Every structure is written in C-alpha cells, then in structure tokens.
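S.,

Sequence below, as promised.
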Amino acid sequence: MVTGGAGFIGTHVVNELIKGGHKVVVLDDLSGGFIDNVNPKAEFIKGSVEDFALLEKLFRKHKFDYVYHLAAYAAEGLSHFIKRFNYSNNLIGSVNLINESVKHKVKCFVFTSSIAVYGNQKPPMSEDMIPIPEDPYGIAKYAVEMDLRVTHEMFGLNYIIFRPHNVYGEYQNIGDRYRNVVGIFMNQLMQGKQLTVFGDGSQTRAFSYIGDIAPCIANSVNNTNAYNQVFNIGADKEYSVNELAAATMDAMQLKGEIRHLPGRNEVLHAFSDHSKVKKIFPSGNTVSLHDGLNAMAKWAKRTGIRKSKKFEEIEITEKLPPIWLEE
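The prediction came back faster than expected:
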C-alpha cells in the first residue's frame, strides 16, 4: 500500500515499486494529488487515511506486506493556522494506518517524516539531535515517529523513517500556493507574475531532486539493516531562496521580478547531514540543482499553468500572511 500515491513523492515511489515487480494499491483522497499521476499498473482507491473503516476493509482484503505512508498535508508554514486539520490529517490518519499494520502483521512500515522535526537547531541536522519542532506540522511528524518506535517495542512492527527536505521535481503540485517553493516559482513565471519571497530571501535550504529520493525510499524495505532506524535524505548543498529564484528563472528561460513579502515565522537555515543514509544505501544518485531544475522545467512547461486555490479551512487568521488570503 502507498498512501498519497497520487501526490508528488508518492507518484515516484509507486513508479519505482511497479518497476521492481510489486503489486501496488494506491490510497489517495486527491486533495493535493492528481489521478493522472497514478501509474496505470497500480490499483487506485480514492479515500482518506482518516477513514479507519475504509482502512480496515483494505487491509483485510489485500493483506499488505508493506505500507509506504506518504499521505500528508505538508504545508509547514500554514500548519500554525490549521492546527485541527493538521493533527487530524497528519497524526490521527497515521495512527489509523499503524493500528491496521499491527493487526495485519505488516512486515515493514515506511514513513516519510520531515526535516521539520529538528526545528531551529544549528545545521547540518543529524539524526542524533533531539528533535525540537517549531511548528504543528513538525510536531505531528515527530509524534508519528515516536509512536512507530513504541509500537515496534510493544508489538514488533518494523519501520523505516525518512526525513526528506525541500524535495522538488516532476509531478509536484505547482498550483499549491502554501508549499513547494520551486513549484510556486515556476507557476508564477509561466503566468508572468512576480516571484514571491518571504523576507529578504537569505534563508537557506538544500533543495533535493525527487530522482535522488524516491528510489531509496521505494527499495528500503529490501535492506533489513535499515529497519527501525531514522534517516535524513536529500541534497547536501544548500542555496538561499534568492539563489533558487535566479536558478529557476534560468531553467524556465523566463525572467521575472522578485516581490519581497514580510518575513514569516520559519526556520532560517535548514539542511541535513546524510552520512548515515549513505552508509546504508551507498548507491544513491546526486543530481545538481541546475540539472534537477532543468528536468522539472521541461515537465512544468508541458503540464502548463495550474490555478492556485485558497485553502478553505483556515482556523486561525491572526498573523496569517496576507498573500495567503489573496484571490
């Protein structure tokens, strides 16, 4: 089972699993993914991880060997303003899956967590740091990590946790205004709009190409040395958001102006150490930012402009960035 298999990272993981000869069932509510993304060789079920009755039926019917849990609403900055939605979707939905995995003796549960669990610690983040998340999204991810650990200790459910960061590439939802800065920039450029940057653009991230991430996640269950461990995964070289904006314009072959918005409550510098994952998965690829952006730009131009939708379930409007209320 792959939850979120119609979404960005999930689509690539499903394709890798199909390539490896696996039978795959995709569960996705299409809130952030697209049915066109789903590999035709996979069985698609439209539904939510919050629907525990549906999960019970699917686990009973398919008797899954492995569960890859990638379904999440991963808008880190927005999570301050959608706490109930965030915890229902990202925490309770995960617990529903963990319960069924225990009851049906799943061999390994693969969970995509996030660099957000580290919070505002000094980079590079390493797995031996004690997480101190700074936002509800990171809190939810870390809570699931802790639940997987105690579930393994109590019931023997094996797990692998990946903490990816700032992943970009083909099949990303470029119409989502709240997350995925590369996709936002490309969508804005194709519309002739200004590129919106919170603060002065000096915040740094290591932008990670999906082709370097998905094969490792998909094939991880074949490596028992990875079981019951946590791995940072992503690119090693960090760039400022200003540098990313310039590189994205080059890749798209479109010039745009940058519109600096008031800074928001976010970690300024976040990138990870990957020495642990390289020891366990030594054959990982490394695609440069230049090459990754060029590959995504070709796909984005074929896909075309995606209309940005407002999130309709904002729970707190105090301190919400005004641009997130614009039509």
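The CA atoms of residues 186 and 300 lie 7 Å apart.

Coffee later?
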